[in-house]
Structure formats: structure tokens, C-alpha cells
Design a protein that fits this description.
Elements (H helix, E strand, L loop, with lengths): L5 H20 L4 H29 L3 E3 L8 E3 L3 H15 L5 H5 L4 H10 L2 H27 L3 H4 L2 H5 L1 H10 L4 E3 L5 H4 L2 E3 L2 H19 L7 H22 L5 H28 L8 H18 L3 H6 L2 H14 L12 E3 L4 E3 L2 E3 L14 H10 L6 H6 L11 H5 L7 H4 L9 H12 L5 E3 L7 E5 L3 H9 L4 H30 L4
The structure holds uridine-diphosphate-N-acetylglucosamine (UD1) and magnesium ion.
Length: 507
């Protein structure tokens, strides 16, 4: 560890010895052991990353920081280190929740009793959860290396959650939802969703993993939001563990949740130190998938997926905002991250091109007549030969080249489709107008008619923050996202622990 001073090295050693001491002396209390392991995992991640950075770069796992003056190469996929250390930590932790069965005497009837009382399903829960997380770490890494296409990687988290859902089916098997009090006269107290509940949980896994990956691209933002969510989950678990009204099964599930979340916080903090502005390492899709799946796992097995989604309010908003680009109603560039302005050293909203200023200005008219009128008003700007130059297909057209250079007064709308300036579909045009009216994007129109949208700001929460608050440094933008995430967590706590009393008869 040549990169750290002797004093820091001694401090690390002291913390590691302290953590091991906690683990050894409190082996009977899994939660305290888990805290010790989490500290160890955090320190190990923090110290392993600089040592492994060069190896990652040599292996081709590197990326370019898009928001810096000088473009230097940065090791990518460092979430793999955090994910692996997390998994090793959790594997080492597996025996501890079952310690009392290990320490019991092995002879005679007691051994029989041990076999009868050992919580096999609890062990199965732990193992299936680790299997699902491990699968997503692996898939995230594969995505970093192979750049898997969205249509293929989209359903993968649901497939990775099947082991988990199997155990859920055997152990908990709860597929009903409690109906809010005001709706009970109509719907009754419970609605059994049956198989749909499993579809819902698969969707939760898909959402948690991908939603972090699309709220990404500036230094520290992926780990930052994940840390706020993880701390919110941990606090929520602690509230339940402290509450006198929490029953034994709920205590078990919230303890289970803490066992998974505390080491996650440990490795994320270790990673964050290197990923914080200015980033020395990138975390890659590996971390986004690892984080998302860890949250999905605890939400599903600890049976609080609705509360979990409350902690994902910014991600839900970002997903809904992104939907027109994700579903290609409007163009979606490879990177939607805010644009770095070299002159000011500040981040500004990035834009996506919707249409071209040049060529002719055919408006999106609802009827053929309107289209004809537009063209008729401005015949000089209509040129089929320029359309041909722009890659338009005129093979269906009857016009000869001579006729093309002399624009006709009437043109069928289908003749114009292949042109560059019909890139924005009608549905996309409506999206642009609605989002603009809601103040969620800024649209630039063509200078001649002022009606044809040429550019819009990319539909992400990062660009929206910049749109509303003005340009800011990359570091401040990450902090802003974390503040938004924190405020949404406060709202989530208020809804879950206060507002819920008006809607449900359980707190
Ligand atoms: C997702 C987003 C994409 C965004 C990208 C940024 C969608 C549909 N996709 O794509 O819009 O641009 O994440 O991660 O919303 N990078 C930085 N600084 C950072 C982190 C990343 O410049 O702090 C850049 C680096 O060039 C890095 C690259 O982003 O190599 C990683 O992008 P990748 O994770 O491959 O993008 P996607 O997840 O496919
Ligand atoms: Mg990514």
C-alpha cells in the first residue's frame, strides 16, 4: 500500500484489528458481528481499489471522464471490487446467524433436536439472496465488458431474482395486498394478486437495477444515491427493531435486511472515497446492478417492497421523465449526461437534436391540406433534389429530376417521410410539447417559423436540476442529487410512519 502514509496504514490496521476483535468477542450476536464485518469490508474496499486500478486499465477496463478539461483514462468497473468484497464478507458471515446451532452439544437427542429445529428456510433465504446479488454482479461486469444491448439486458434482473422468488414462495408465500381503509367498502380488506405478485417482484428487481444505471454519469452520483437509499433502509430497519409493537417475524425480516445493507454501506463508502469528484475510478454498470439487486433482495425478502419504492422516488421520477427517450418516442443519444462547459468549468443541460435547421421547413401538420398550404407558402424552400442529397428515397415518386428541381405546388406527405427533418414522430412531438409545458425540458425551435422543435434538453433529473438551478460544478450537481434523494427519503419516512396511519390500520 505504497499510496498511503505510514500513519494511515497504522490507523487502518488498528481499525481492522478492532473489527476482528468485535467479531470474535460478539460471535453470539450476529448483528454486532455484521457491523464488524462491514467495517472490515469498507476498509478492504478502500485499500484494494488503488492497488487494482492499474490491473483494470491493463485489462482494458477503462473509461474517459466526459466532464473534465483534460481527457484522461480512468479505470472502469470498480464496482466489481466492491461487489466481490461484499460477497466474500457475506459468505464469511453466513455461519453467524446460526451460531447457536453450532455451539449446541452434538450428542444424542440434542443432535436430533438440532436437525429438527434448524431454520433451513432462513439459510435458503440467505443463500438465494446471495445467489441473486452474485448473478447481477456477474451480469453487470459482462455488460461493462461486452456492452450488452438494452433489449437483452432489460429483463436480466427478473431472471436473476428467480432463486429469491422460489424461496419467497416456499417460505413467505404472501401474495395479497392490504387494501387502504377508504377503499375497503368496495374492495374488501385484502386482494390476492396470486402469480401477479411474483411478476410485480420481478419488475421491482428490474426497476431497482436499471433505475440507478440511468441516473448516472457524473462523478460520485451512482454511489451517492445508493448510499442515501441504503442508509434510509438501515434507519427504517432500526426503527422497526426499536418499536415495541414489532412482532417476532418482523424483527427477523428487518434483521435480515440489516445483515445485507450494513456491509453494502461499508463497501460503498470504501468505493465512494475513490469515486468522489474528481473521480480516480469509475464504478461501471457492475456497481449499479449490484446496488439495485441488493435493494431489491432486501425489499422482497423483508417484505417491504412498497416502502423500498418510496426510497426510490427520485429514480421513479427520473424513469418517468426518461420514458420518452427510453421508449424512443424522441431520439435517445448514447450519453445523456449533462454537458461540461470548458470555458466556465460548469455543467449545463445536455441537448438532443430532434430536427435539422437546414433543408425545408415542413411543419408537422395534422392534415394533408395543411401540409400543402405550408409548402405552397414557401415553394423556394421545397426541393426534392435537396431531399435526395439528404438521403431521402424518391424511388416511389413519379417526378423526373427536372420536375424535382422545380418544386411542385402539391406534395404528398408520404413523399416527405424519409427526409431528415421528419425524424421526430408525431407521438414524439406531443411528448416534447407536454414536457415543455410542464417545464421539464427546454426546447429550441427553428429560427424561421419558430414552430419546428430542433433541440431539447435530455430528459434526466440531472439535466432538470441544471435547468431549474442554473449551471453548477460537477461536484455540486452530485451533492444536489444526494440532497434531493435525502429529502425524498424524509418524505418516504413521513408517508411510511405517519401518513400510513390514515390509510392502513397498522403502523
Ligand atoms: C447510462 C445512461 C447514459 C449515461 C451513462 C453514464 C441512459 C439510457 N443511459 O448508459 O445516458 O450517459 O449511463 O454513465 O440513460 N462517465 C463519466 N463520468 C462519471 C461516470 C461515467 O464521464 O462520473 C462516463 C465515462 O465515459 C464512462 C461512461 O460514462 O466510461 C459509462 O457509461 P455506461 O455505464 O457504459 O453507460 P450506460 O449505463 O449504457
Ligand atoms: Mg452505466
Amino acid at each position: 500500500m505504497g499510496h498511503i502514509s505510514a500513519l494511515t496504514a497504522w490507523l487502518i490496521l488498528a481499525a481492522e484489528v478492532g473489527a476482528v476483535f468485535i467479531i470474535l468477542t460478539t460471535a453470539h450476536d450476529p448483528l454486532t458481528v455484521n457491523v464488524g464485518f462491514s467495517v472490515l469490508a469498507g476498509i478492504t474496499t478502500w485499500s484494494a481499489i488503488p492497488a487494482l486500478s492499474e490491473i483494470f486499465v491493463k485489462a482494458g477496463l477503462k473509461g474517459m471522464d466526459l466532464s473534465k478539461k483534460t481527457k484522461h483514462i480512468i479505470p472502469e468497473s470498480m464496482g466489481m471490487v466492491a461487489g466481490l468484497i461484499y460477497l466474500v464478507t457475506m459468505f464469511l458471515f453466513i455461519p453467524f446467524p446460526f451460531m447457536k446451532w453450532f455451539t449446541a452439544s452434538n450428542d444424542g437427542d440434542l443432535h436430533e433436536l438440532k436437525l429438527l429445529t434448524f431454520p433451513n428456510l432462513k439459510l435458503a433465504e440467505l443463500l438465494s439472496a446471495l445467489l441473486s446479488i452474485q448473478s447481477m454482479v456477474f451480469l453487470g461486469f459482462a455488460d461493462d465488458v461486452l456492452d450488452i444491448r438494452w433489449r437483452f439486458k432489460m429483463p436480466l434482473p427478473a431472471i436473476a431474482s428467480i432463486p429469491l422468488l422460489m424461496v419467497y414462495w416456499v417460505h413467505l408465500g404472501v401474495t395479497h395486498i392490504v387494501v387502504p381503509i377508504p377503499l375497503r367498502p368496495i374492495l374488501g380488506q385484502l386482494i390476492d394478486l396470486g402469480a401477479l405478485y411474483y411478476v410485480y417482484m420481478g419488475m421491482v428487481a428490474i426497476f431497482c437495477t436499471h433505475s440507478i444505471n440511468i441516473m448516472a454519469g457524473i462523478n460520485g452520483v451512482e454511489v451517492g444515491q445508493s448510499l442515501v437509499i441504503a442508509c434510509s433502509i438501515a434507519i427504517n430497519d432500526m426503527i422497526f427493531l426499536q418499536s415495541a409493537s414489532t412482532g417476532a417475524p418482523a424483527i427477523e425480516t428487518h434483521l435480515f435486511s440489516l445483515y445485507f445493507i450494513l456491509p453494502f454501506i461499508g463497501v460503498s463508502l470504501g468505493l465512494m472515497i475513490h469515486n468522489w469528484y474528481p473521480s480516480k475510478v469509475f464504478i461501471g454498470d457492475t456497481y449499479c446492478y449490484f446496488a439495485g439487486m441488493t435493494f431489491a433482495v432486501v425489499g422482497i425478502l423483508a417484505h417491504y417492497s412498497k416502502t423500498l419504492l418510496l426510497f426510490f422516488i427520485p429514480q421513479i421520477f427520473n424513469f418517468l421523465l426518461s420514458a420518452p427517450q427510453l421508449f424512443r418516442l424522441v431520439p435517445c443519444p448514447r450519453h445523456r449526461v449533462p454537458r461540461y462547459n470548458r470555458q466556465t468549468n460548469l455543467m449545463e443541460p445536455s441537448r438532443v437534436v430532434l430536427d435539422e435547421e437546414e433543408d425545408f421547413e415542413v411543419e408537422f401538420s395534422s392534415t394533408k391540406q395543411e401540409s400543402k398550404r405550408t409548402l405552397g407558402r414557401s415553394p423556394s424552400s421545397v426541393s426534392l433534389s435537396s431531399a435526395g442529397a439528404a438521403g431521402a428515397s424518391t424511388q416511389d415518386s413519379d417526378e423526373s429530376p427536372t420536375e424535382s428541381s422545380n418544386p411542385p405546388t402539391t406534395i404528398r406527405l408520404q413523399d416527405l417521410r424519409p427526409l431528415k427533418n421528419s425524424k421526430l414522430k408525431r407521438s414524439g412531438w406531443y411528448c416534447v410539447k407536454i414536457l415543455e409545458a410542464l417545464g421539464l425540458t427546454h426546447v429550441r425551435y427553428d429560427s424561421k417559423t419558430g414552430k419546428r422543435p430542433l433541440e431539447m434538453t435530455n430528459l434526466t433529473i440531472l439535466n432538470l436540476i441544471l435547468l431549474k438551478a442554473g449551471p453548477m460544478s460537477e461536484r455540486n450537481l452530485t451533492i444536489s442529487v444526494m440532497v434531493v434523494q435525502f429529502c425524498c427519503s424524509l418524505v418516504a419516512f413521513f408517508i411510511r410512519h405517519r401518513l400510513v396511519a390514515f390509510v392502513y390500520d397498522v403502523v
